[in-house]
Amino acid sequence: MGASVDFLTRQGTLDDAEEILSVEMQAFRRQVDSAEWARLLDAKRKVAHLYRVLEVDGRIVSEAQVSPHRLRLGRAAEVLKGDVGGVATLPEFQGHGHGSAMMRDTVAWMRDAGYHLSRLGGYARFYGRFGYVPMPRRHVLFPIGPVKAGAATIPAEEIFRLPADLPGVMRSYDMGRDIIRHGDLSELFNGTRSGAFLRDRETEAKIAANPPPAESDPLRVVYEVDGEMQGYALSHTADPNPHVSRPSITISDIAIDPAHPEALVALIKHILSEAHRRSLSLVMARMPFDETLFAILRAERIEFRLVEQNEGIASNMMRIIDLEALLRAAAPELSANLAEAGIEKFLPPVTLEIAVNGQRAGLEIAHGKVSATPSAAPDARLKLDQGTLIKLLFGQTTFAEAVFPSKSKLSPTARAALTGLFPRQACYGGYALG
Question: Residue 234 forms beta bridges with which residues?
């Protein structure tokens, strides 16, 4: 950015909502009628305080929204992720460094505000300048249509028909009525899945106390037994995109009580039947890659495919905002991993230095406990790329599978420690880490 550019960055306010919306609409060259503008403005007022804005001569010319997400990290820890979206710059100011200045400010603000990680989706070459690296998305795909079985063709209506002996019933999801049980089931279903969103009981209580009008939507459904919800699936239609390539339905949130496995069958078959009714050929579910769930689907002969998308030019991306703070937050889970591995009593004290994207921090292991420290006189040094460390921390890969320089030169003690610290774990589905 040229030295002649003069600007001010600050947090957005309610009074900025209309200007924030105007910048976004102009940057993305969108035009809407007055009714849609009013709806969008009302929505923007609710999130204006989440924006960082850049002003030139008192005028907002660039902006970025940071939505806070508390994520589960295994059984014993949680981290704070900033989901960055709505990055926009007025067309007449594009190409002069304002967008870059906005992103640098946003990353610095997240560090000062205590965020551990950040995620965004967008042009990989641009966001790579600010430390973001591509991360995969995991989806379960369900094809829709008849199935050829030898000389016979089994129609979709028969494939997706609900089991006759189903003990429960389906109904539309009612947020006011269901929000508390929704939270219960999400906690129960996700258990210790790393990357799952942590429950927000305060928001649940507010919604339950002031429920929105109930709406009937066949894509947002509940499975209940004897009047109690035992599963839910919240879905929406999705336009064609480079990953799916044709119109589809996306199941963005699904959970069941593990004691009612038939709930998964009922919910999935209901959504597949609805997709067939709408002449759509695909359903994409953001659900965990979990063999227990897959066994339920296989038992019911429901066809599915597992997809891990590793994108190129436009990508799902993440970055470590504060390495030492991230390791400090993860320390209780890392200690639990050592205990689970059964080596905490036999492992001698060891200090590891981890270097990632220009940041350095230490992990000290003593008497089975892990603590994060400023790196000083370590027993072993590891230089990792961000994607590898994020996958290790969230259990998407193991130390044995990880590839990084000097791995083969680590001492037996360091290798034993790292093997115990980083096992494979169950992870949340969909966009990486929530």
Answer: 220, 253
- Which residues have C-beta within 8 Å of that of residue 311, sequence separation ≥ 6? 124, 134, 137, 243
The identity of residue 194, as a single letter, is S
Which amino acid, 391?
K
For residue 247, the model assigns a pLDDT of: 65
For the chain, how far is it from start to end, CA to CA, in angstroms? Answer: 33
Q: Which two tokens stand for residue 131?
A: 């430390």
Which of 198, 257, 265, 189 minimizes the C-alpha distance to 228? 257
| Residues shown for the chain | 434
Alpha carbons 324 and 133: distance in angstroms, whole number: 19
Percent of the chain with pLDDT over 90: 80
List 318's β-bridge partners, or say none.
119, 133
Maximum separation of any 2 CA atoms in the chain, in Å: 75
Q: What is the pLDDT of residues 95-152, one digit of tens each?
A: 999 999 999 999 999 999 999 999 999 999 999 999 999 998 889 999 998 888 888 8
Query: How far is 292 from 157, CA to CA, in rounded Å?
Result: 26
DSSP assigned state of 348? P
- Residue 243's pLDDT is what? 47
pLDDT, tens only, 287-318: 999 999 999 999 999 999 999 888 788 889 99
How far, in Å, CA of 173 to CA of 292, rounded?
25
What 3-state DSSP class applies to 205?
helix
- Predicted TM-score (pTM) of this structure: 0.89
User: Which H or E element spans position 325?
Assistant: helix 323-341
Q: Which residue has the tokens 């905490």?
A: 344
Q: Supply 410's token pair.
A: 């680590």
Give bridge partners of residue 88 from the DSSP assignment.
63
> Residue 74 in contact with residue 195, Cβ under 8 Å?
no
Per the prediction, the chain carries an average pLDDT of: 92
Tabulate helix, strand, coil % of the chain (nearest 5). 35, 30, 35
CA distances in angstroms from 333 to 20, 53, 371, listed in the order given: 40, 36, 11
φ, ψ at 367 (rounded to 5°) = 55, 35
Q: Which domains does the chain have, with CATH numbers?
A: 8-132+313-318 (3.40.630.30), 138-309 (3.40.630.30), 322-421 (3.30.1050.10)
SS3 category, 357: coil
Please compute the mean of the pLDDT values over residues 358-387 and round it to a whole number. 91
